[in-house]
Specification:
The chain is of the alpha+beta class. Helix content is 25%, strand content 13%. The chain folds into two domains: 2-167, Transferase(Phosphotransferase) domain 1 (Transferase(Phosphotransferase), domain 1, Orthogonal Bundle), CATH 1.10.510.10; 175-205, no CATH class. The radius of gyration is 18 Å and the shape is globular. Residues 166-171 have low confidence and may be disordered.
Amino acid sequence: MSFIASKSIVHGNLGCRNVLVFRLDPLVVKNNFVKITDFGLARSLNRSSIFENSCIIPKRYCALEILRNDGQSSYTEKSDVYSMGVLIWEALSNSEIPYSYIADDNQVVRAKLDNERLNKPPICNRQLWTLVTSCWEDEREWLPNFEEIQERLSVIEPSEVSDVRQPISSYEPPTGYTFKLNVDVSRNGLLGGKFRKIYEAQWML
């Protein structure tokens, strides 16, 4: 992302779903090899974008200024920085969907604009959480850029970050829903999910 930002390009759709992992070394960080994909919402800061009036907004991941302007403007490196904070949270939460306890995206928007933030994952240490929350500062000038994020990540030892690859059986899903399977909802087709099986559900009326 430091390289992408240096070319005055805003990705606009950062999330774990758009990070391809080619090599993973939990002990030697420099051996890790990933690629950012899906530039469908990307735009150049040096020229007008054909997506300037696009209504496609990843509401659970995007910066607050994007929500305030209904996605029509305010895309900068700092808006990608906000999404990077959500991406790190997602990676440390077993790929949990941000604000998964809220079903409706429009309600998520209202919650975010009311300054409701994601909670600290149990396996996230204080140093990394400080970095994540710095990506969500209300004032743009307080947000780090990607070079600063890279520098701060480089001083966090892998041993300081708890193992995120916990077994599914030990993972506690978010609470907040009160429905019961086969009583209130029925399970339909499998949608996917690497760490958890994500199914389509339908209310039983």
